[in-house]
Amino acid sequence: MLGREGKRSLRPRSGSHIFALLLIPGAALLAFFLWGFLRGAVEQLRRPAPATAHTETSALGILPHRGDIVLILDDVGFDHQPLETAMAIDPNVNFAVLPNGKHSAEFAATLHDHGFELLCHLPMEPEGFPRVSPGDGAVMTAMSDAEIARTTRANIETIRFARGVNNHMGSRATADRRVMTDVLGAFPKGMYFIDSKTTGNSVAGSVAHEMRVKTASRNVFLDDVQDVVLIRHQLDELASTAASRGIAIGIGHMHPTTMQVLTEDAPKLRAKGFRFVRASSVVE
């Protein structure tokens, strides 16, 4: 009896012992796979992120913002102008279209279709007229108030996508308070004026403020001299002004030398933290 009881007591112990022995290899195998998974996860966390476009964009995003640059390309509307090259510089380049240019309407439509901001490059009387001529349809100081207003409106209507105006030449006209009052008074509501500052005697900005027309003034001419070294120097000056003041306005043209410098240097300026912006975003 006791022996039978003894045998019964040994059997369950023997079964559990065998079951435990069978579990050991399974547990070991599970531990092995778990350890491999954890090691891989740790290595993945330690591994540096790949240089994808997202990480490059993020890296650029943390650059300090050094200043805003308004780039205006003047005298748009003539033969052999490299419009495609100019449009590739930056999406926020501003184009000032001359109303009396051979291709003004065509170029204005093309630029508008590509989303660029346009200005009417209003021809105005310079010092030295008639030896120096602003071309057809210019605002002249000898005009009556009504003639100035009518001429201004006709020029603006020619560039029907224009959001603003800047002066072409105009060193004499922009120094005349009566003339500028008539010009600015003829603007459609909401149109701004960029003073090209072709003379230190300009009253355009002060008259615009008095009349509550949004305005700003040019800081740097890029290409009075069409030389790559000098244009690059002027572009550096523009960037330096933007860095110190927060905003700087530069005016240039679609000359081959200017296009070369801007094509090569615009990406470098962006990489340094400068941003090209539209003229409408800086006028006040």
Strand content: 15-25%
The global form is: globular
Number of domains: 2
At the first level of CATH, the class of the largest domain is Alpha Beta
Low-confidence stretches: 1-14, 16-21, 41-60
CATH architecture of the largest domain: Alpha-Beta Barrel
Give the radius of gyration.
35 Å
State the helical fraction: 40-55%
CATH topology (level 3) name of the largest domain:
TIM Barrel
Distance between the termini: 110 Å
CATH H-tier superfamily of the largest domain: Glycoside hydrolase/deacetylase
Number of strands: 9
Structural class: alpha/beta
Summarize the structure in words.
- This protein has 284 residues and is of the alpha/beta class.
- It has 2 domains: 1-47; 67-281, Glycoside hydrolase/deacetylase (TIM Barrel, Alpha-Beta Barrel).
- The protein is 47% helix and 17% strand.
- The protein contains 9 helices and 9 strands.
- Strands 1, 2, 3, 4, 5, 6, 7, 8 and 9 form a 9-stranded parallel sheet that branches.
- The protein starts with a helix and ends in a 7-residue tail after the last strand.
- Residues 1-14, 16-21 and 41-60 have low confidence and may be disordered.
Descriptive keywords:
284 residues; alpha/beta; TIM Barrel; 2 domains; nine-stranded parallel β-sheet; 9 helices; 47% helix; globular; disordered N terminus
Q: Could you outline the blueprint of secondary structure elements for this entry?
A:
Blueprint: H1 2-46, H2 53-61, E1 67-76, H3 83-87, E2 94-97, H4 104-113, E3 117-124, H5 145-158, E4 164-169, H6 177-185, E5 192-195, H7 204-210, E6 215-217, E7 220-221, H8 228-245, E8 247-253, H9 256-271, E9 274-277
Parallel strand pairs: 1-2, 1-8, 1-9, 2-3, 3-4, 4-5, 5-6, 7-8
